[in-house]
């Protein structure tokens, strides 16, 4: 329906049409991607999972519309101007992606010849038309994405092992998540129910579903000895102004819950991967905190305490390809953990659509490698089909021997910071291989990125900036 603000709200009938269209896409999607052989070393001893985040679907995306329309979001039927025309699968500019592009990514993941154990979905379902957000609009996108994931991955061995998290764009208004759990039930309850098919596949799924529906955070046992912990990063989002309504340094008691959960995992001899939406630490561009200072400190203490069981952390939100290294709280010199930030499926504003495959050892559960897949929209729009290709993998792409915190810290300060050739690789990969707005080696943006990746706490970041990127 169209309300008095002349904006479109996805009503029940329009939502049904979108689901029907989604089914049509499943039958007609043209991803036509070549199979990419992964040299996984001891492949018989390796497990895998996928990380897909930030699709930002736009039901109003329109092929042939204006890409440079002068408004906050373009590539829509209503977009003014006669500039570059929007392509079928997406266009580089202030535009999000059509459902077809997301379904193509899921089709590639489903048919990829590896037996992944689960898919982590990182949130942010809908387009960047933030002023249009309301509970009905956002919820229908949440249900649309849940159904897209279920349908798009149907037939795979991990079709019922989709692990969702909540993004800041999923809330209405954007970023705002009240601390009273009952006030978030409009989203968490129906979306949780939409993923019940997946929760039910895990032995502790019913309890996890109840926790998701109440607090947005939960834990599931992936397999004996390997646990996933999903946090609700709205409790550490600096733009969630509901956090100003409390003096509690642990909103939602999430850090307390995380500490208890990890203590139980440690006692059970389990390894743990942490999943979420907004990464911890400092922004790689603005020098502002990506997550609140209280959370960064509390999380740093927890990561240091449980470093022996934490194999890694995975986030989205920034749309870029980068990482964050946790260090000991006392000296900020000893690496204790790594948070990997996966680039987005949406191309907003100028990135190649992307997602990741993570490889781990099935006996130790330690991470072995991370593979990033991308699509070139210019080529896709010309060819009439999307070709997903591997951009790079961490081990070979950076010449690493392992993904330990010490190795990743060394990558930042011993390779990316002083070696132009290595930095240039990273800078291009930051935007998933799209060559515009690249941060060059001799520019101030490089120092901000180095220090933000090498420090989660602002104290360490400040020292890094003042020492020109030295540890």
TrEMBL record:
InterPro entries assigned: ASM_C (IPR045473), ASMase/PPN1_MPP (IPR041805), Metallo-depent_PP-like (IPR029052), Sphingomy_PDE (IPR011160)
Species of origin: Naegleria gruberi (Amoeba)
Gene3D superfamilies: 3.60.21.10
Keyword vocabulary terms for this entry: Disulfide bond, Glycoprotein, Hydrolase, Metal-binding, Signal, Zinc
One GO MF term: sphingomyelin phosphodiesterase activity
GO terms for biological process, alphabetical: sphingomyelin catabolic process
Residue stretches making up the Sphingomyelin phosphodiesterase C-terminal domain: 343-468
Name this polypeptide is given: Metallophosphoesterase domain-containing protein
Pfam families per UniProt: ASMase_C
Cofactor note: Binds 2 Zn(2+) ions per subunit.
Signal peptide: 1-31
Binding site for Zn(2+) 1: 54, 56, 124, 319
Disulfide pattern: 69-74, 75-95
Binding site for Zn(2+) 2: 124, 168, 277, 317
Cofactor(s) it depends on: Zn(2+)
CDD domains found in the cross-reference section: MPP_ASMase
One cellular component term from this protein's GO annotations in UniProt: membrane
């Amino acid at each position: 329906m169209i309300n008095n603000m002349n904006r479109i709200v996805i009503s029940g009938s329009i939502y049904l049409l979108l689901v029907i269209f989604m089914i049509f896409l499943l039958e007609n999607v043209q991803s036509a991607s070549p199979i990419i052989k992964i040299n996984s070393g001891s492949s018989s001893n390796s497990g895998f999972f996928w990380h897909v985040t930030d699709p930002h679907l736009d039901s109003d995306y329109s092929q042939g519309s204006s890409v440079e329309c002068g408004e906050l979001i373009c590539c829509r039927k209503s977009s003014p101007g006669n500039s570059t025309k929007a392509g079928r699968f997406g266009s580089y500019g202030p535009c999000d992606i059509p459902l077809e592009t997301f379904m193509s990514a899921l089709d590639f993941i489903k048919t990829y010849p590896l037996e992944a154990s689960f898919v982590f979905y990182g949130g942010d379902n809908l387009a960047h038309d933030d002023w249009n957000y309301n509970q009905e609009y956002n919820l229908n996108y949440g249900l649309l994405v849940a159904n897209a994931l279920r349908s798009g991955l149907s037939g795979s061995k991990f079709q019922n092992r989709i692990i969702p998290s909540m993004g800041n764009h999923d809330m209405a208004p954007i970023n705002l998540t009240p601390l009273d759990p009952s006030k978030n039930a409009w989203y968490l309850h129906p979306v949780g129910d939409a993923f019940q098919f997946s929760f039910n596949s895990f032995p502790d799924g019913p309890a996890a579903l109840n926790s998701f529906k109440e607090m947005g955070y939960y834990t599931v046992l992936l397999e004996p000895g390997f646990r996933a912990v999903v946090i609700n990063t709205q409790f550490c989002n600096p733009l969630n102004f509901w956090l100003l309504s409390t003096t509690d340094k642990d909103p939602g008691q999430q850090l307390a819950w995380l500490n208890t959960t990890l203590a139980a995992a440690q006692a059970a001899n389990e390894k743990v991967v942490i999943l979420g939406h907004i990464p911890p630490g400092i922004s790689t561009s603005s020098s502002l905190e990506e997550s609140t200072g209280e959370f960064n400190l509390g999380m740093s203490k927890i990561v240091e305490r449980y470093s022996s069981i934490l194999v890694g952390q995975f986030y989205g939100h920034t749309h870029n390809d980068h990482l964050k290294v946790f260090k000991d709280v006392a000296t900020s010199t000893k690496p204790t953990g790594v948070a990997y930030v996966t680039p987005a499926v949406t191309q907003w504003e100028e990135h190649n659509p992307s997602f990741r495959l993570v490889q781990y050892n099935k006996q130790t559960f330690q991470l072995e490698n991370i593979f990033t897949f991308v699509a070139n929209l210019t080529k896709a729009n010309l060819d009439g089909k999307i070709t997903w290709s591997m951009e790079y993998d961490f081990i070979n792409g950076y010449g690493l021997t392992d993904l330990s915190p010490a190795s990743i810290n060394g990558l930042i300060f011993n390779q990316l910071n002083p070696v132009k050739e290595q930095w240039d690789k990273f800078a291009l990969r930051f935007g998933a291989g799209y060559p515009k707005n690249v941060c060059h080696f001799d520019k101030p943006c490089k120092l901000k990125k180095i220090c933000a990746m090498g420090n989660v706490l602002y104290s360490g970041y400040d020292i890094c900036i003042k020492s020109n990127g030295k540890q």
